[in-house]
Amino acid sequence: MAILEDKLIEQGMAEQVTTFESGNEMAAMAAAQINYHIMGYFPITPSTEVAQILDQMKARGEHDIKLIPADGEHGSAGICYGAAATGARVFNATSANGLLYMIEQLPVQAGTRFPMVMNLVTRAVSGPLDIRGDHSDLYYALNTGWVILTARTPQAVYDMNIMALKIAEHAKVRLPVIVAYDGFFTSHQKRRVQYFKDRRFVQQFVGECPTDYHFIRDPKKPVTIGAHMNGEDLMNNHFQQSEAMYHAGEIFKEVACEYAKLSGREYPVLDLYKMEDAEVALFLLNSAAESAKDVVDQLRAQGVKAGVISPNIIRPFPAKEIREALKNVKALLVGERADSYGAHGANLTHEVKSALQDDKDNQTIVLCRIFGLGGKDFYASDAHEFFKMAIDAMEKGYAEKPFDYYGHIPGDPEKILKPAITPQHGDVFKTGLIEVKMDEETQKLKVKIPPLRALTSKPKRIASGHGACPGCGIFGGLELFFKGIEGDIVTLFQTGCAYVTTTAYPYSSHKQTMIHNLFQNGAATLSGTVEAFMELKRRGEIQVSDDATFVMITGDGGMDIGMGSAIGTALRGHKLIMLEYDNEGYMNTGSQMSYSTPIGHMTSTSGVGKVQKGKTFHHKDTVQIMAATNIPYVFTGSEAFPQDLVKKGAKAQWYAQNVGPVYGKLLITCPLNWKSEDRYGTKILEAAVNSCFFPLYEVEQGVTTITYNPEEKNKRVSVTEWFKYMGKTKHLLKEENKPILEEFEAEVEKRWQRLKAMHENPLL
């Protein structure tokens, strides 16, 4: 319901609407109402929803923001910096390793003083991988030169996103701003919120976009951005940046006061809960502070003078306000969702202690407890324990243990997990039924495989018990490929559905050695493993068989963000296989658009609406890109054509063991996000191949061979035959979307004809 208009007029506030929304929804709402020029983004849980929601709003025509999907977070930071340097208003959202991947770019933007706003939806930094919320990413941002606001609730996320832009663009600041809020606690939990009914009030509050900076926007006024500096100039530059950061603290107060008049909501530098006469207190960031306030009320009823401090801004750090708040506090426990390893306390603990050093009369005992890592919940009972520790220190006059972790549990050796199956290796995975020989005349491999039923006795490489969705094509495709590989394998799984569903600690579905690394570095990591393996073997430090095969498994967009690593690995010539399962999206984070998503296809970041009809550009041909690196063997495969795939698996192993790197691409069904029925998996794959969208071919020693030609077998079908099975493409069968369908058909035909020409001419 809307706030009563007469009350608003009386208080001088703008009309607002009350609803229940999450932090991510409110970040997107604020961005849409501001109507930024540019958002460069890359999906990473739990910040992904921000871009998804904005895409849905864009499809409905609710804002004009140009949403640019990057190839990775580093690229998204570059997009944002370039746009900001051009004078555009720029927005972004990220989390965890996404922040770390772009972190090299953040000081560049701050040091050249271009404003923007980025939402940091806080999450544990891996490894090991954990997608839930703590502050380990936030603490990496402390030294980037960005102003950092902290939002405890979805309401604060909305309000601070509006305030952040005004602070960033202020003439005394001119710095980028981070709005940090807790992943899954604040980002996904719905709470009562209010937002401005008319976005004109928001736009009037933030004001016009500044035009008096030195932007890249007028050819008549050329500028040089980021010129190289010597030490004297760099000293001056950083001094000015430092001054701007401290100005931001004062500007925050001004903007917060102005915003309170418009909204009725106040955001002081410190949120102080019953701190007027507090003797013991907790210092907590974001959502945990809200949980502790109820405990303060309970302790107050028992006669304990307790309070909670939670900052709304941590860069610049509010040292003066903290000294004032702690004048009479005898013991303070600083709870932190991240550690500064080896420092005897995490970052904010030391900053609180440093602030107190300037008050010679202050005798506050400061304790630090690391808690809530990886999204571990913080309950009222935990706040009670924190207060107990602070009270104990107050009563004793010192802290018995100034620094410790809270919530860790010692392991029990008696409960150590035992393998559910006997480890399988070597001869178990050898059938002796696959024959691979080089044809000296054609310089191509000849492969003989038995009937598929003869290979069914070969054990699967991945055990049952994984958590893949019903109908998922990943493991069917991988296992069929592995049927062509004899002997031991070592696999590296990049982050993605295949990894997440098979390795829920402390369990694993992998029967042989598996290592994980992030999307952007899987190929490089496995290349290091291969070379170390070979060198250790050469020196006689390990005794293993010669036929181990190293396979990197990538998918879910891994050949976007990981393209550079894969190309580098290919060019170096390591003896390994890079195998991509292509489900045409970033399925592990919720079906976002990938560069492998075909034009017009619907994903959660290429929605379908009155002004948008799915993805706007054509899919990337990773097979041809990798073939251009001149590696010995490149191929495509599909579970729907099993003999073809098994043969290619055998070839891939031979080349990886004897010549050099191999790249393969399997088309994989994803019923959940393709909006298709499980039972149609094989039909969908057959239609994709028979429509020539996903042709089956190989590039062996630079020579292209089509291994299945649907035209020669009179099985060529229209792409509409493929589309009809999937909900993500049914809109393309409507008359109003015929131009997109025709453009896609033309692209498929062009690539098919080019492939046929390459097949017919070995020099192409």
UniProtKB/TrEMBL annotation:
Pfam families, sorted: PFOR_II, POR_N, TPP_enzyme_C
Domain Pyruvate flavodoxin/ferredoxin oxidoreductase pyrimidine binding: 30-255
Keyword match Iron-sulfur: yes
Gene3D superfamilies to which the protein is assigned, alphabetical: 3.40.50.920, 3.40.50.970
Protein name: Thiamine pyrophosphate-dependent enzyme
Keywords recorded for this protein, A-Z: 4Fe-4S, Electron transport, Iron, Iron-sulfur, Metal-binding, Oxidoreductase, Transport
Similarity annotation: Belongs to the pyruvate:ferredoxin/flavodoxin oxidoreductase family.
CDD domains: TPP_PYR_PFOR_IOR-alpha_like
Domain Thiamine pyrophosphate enzyme TPP-binding positions: 495-653
Boundaries of every Pyruvate:ferredoxin oxidoreductase core domain copy: 278-382
UniProt xrefs under SUPFAM superfamilies: Thiamin diphosphate-binding fold (THDP-binding), TK C-terminal domain-like
Alphabetical list of InterPro entries matching this protein: PFOR_II, Pyruvate:ferred/Flavod_OxRd, Pyrv_Fd/Flavodoxin_OxRdtase_N, THDP-binding, TPP_enzyme_TPP-bd, Transketo_C/PFOR_II
